Each structure stands twice: as structure tokens, then as C-alpha cells.
């Protein structure tokens, strides 16, 4: 089954893109490229897609495993090549878990399952980038 989106030019460097969820997002270039920064940058949006895909996996596994997590964030730092077409050749993805009663072994298992088995966006990124994933636990009971 295919996924369909429609992306409409709104003039200058701005676009509106639909999503199968029924929501739309705006894409725009920065001022240095003729835009007004009134939307997402396409390449950065790919990184948000990667974080969101893996994040949804981990959130589902936290619920399924009944783990106690106050909060978690995913930080991504990516290197863009110099030559055109510019693409991400190295991606560092850091999971940060916060809480008073973190079950580190199970949380690491959740991250590993997403990264190695479930996240399709991760698999796509692996076709063109070296992806380095690290997990950090922030015990707040101290």
C-alpha cells in the first residue's frame, strides 16, 4: 500500500504539504536561500522523522513493558556533506530518559528493538548514513 501526500507551492520558497494523518505542515527556505523561515527545512524534517519514528516505538514499548519514565527526549546531531547533493553522512542519535525509578536494562531493550528491528526510518537512514545511537539515563531520585 502506498502513502500519498500532496505538496502545494504557496509562492516564493514556501510550500504546504499534507500528511495521511490529515494534518498539514509548511516547508520554507531560510532567508539566506530566498525564504522567510516560515516552515520546516526539508533535510531537518528528515531528522524529525527519524526521531519521531523511533520515539513512537520506544513510547509504545514503555507502555507495553509498564515502565516508569517521567520524560524522555531524543537529540540528533547530523553532519551534512559539503558537495551537492548535500546529504547526512553521519548521524548521532541520543536518547535521554528521566525519572526516579528507571529500569535501565528494559529501557535499553526498548531502544535496541526500535533501532534494530522496528523503525523503518532508521533502516532508510542506514542506506546513506553512519548512525550512532547512545542512551543516557538521568536518575532524578538523588
Automatic annotation (TrEMBL):
EC number: 1.11.1.-
InterPro entries (UniProt xref): KH_dom-like_a/b (IPR015946), OsmC/Ohr_fam (IPR003718), OsmC/Ohrsf (IPR036102)
Any one GO molecular-function label of the UniProt entry: peroxidase activity
Domain of life: Bacteria
The keyword Oxidoreductase belongs to this UniProt entry's keyword annotation: yes
UniProt key word Oxidoreductase: yes
UniProt keyword terms in alphabetical order: Oxidoreductase, Peroxidase
Name of this protein: OsmC family protein
Species this protein is from: Hyunsoonleella rubra
Amino acid at each position: 500500500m502506498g502513502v500519498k501526500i500532496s505538496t502545494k507551492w504557496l509562492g516564493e520558497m514556501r510550500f504546504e504539504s499534507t500528511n495521511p494523518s490529515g494534518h498539514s505542515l509548511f516547508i520554507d527556505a531560510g532567508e539566506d536561500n530566498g525564504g522567510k523561515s516560515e516552515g520546516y527545512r526539508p533535510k531537518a524534517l528528515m531528522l524529525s522523522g527519524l526521531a519521531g519514528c523511533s520515539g513512537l516505538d520506544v513510547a509504545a514499548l514503555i507502555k507495553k513493558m509498564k515502565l516508569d519514565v517521567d520524560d524522555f527526549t531524543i537529540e540528533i546531531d547530523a553532519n551534512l556533506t559539503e558537495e551537492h547533493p548535500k546529504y547526512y553522512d553521519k548521524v548521532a542519535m541520543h536518547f535521554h530518559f528521566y525519572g526516579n525509578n528507571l529500569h535501565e536494562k528494559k529501557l535499553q531493550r526498548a531502544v535496541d528493538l526500535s533501532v534494530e528491528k522496528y523503525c523503518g526510518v532508521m533502516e532508510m537512514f542506514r542506506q546513506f548514513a553512519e548512525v550512532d545511537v547512545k542512551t543516557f539515563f538521568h536518575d532524578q531520585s538523588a
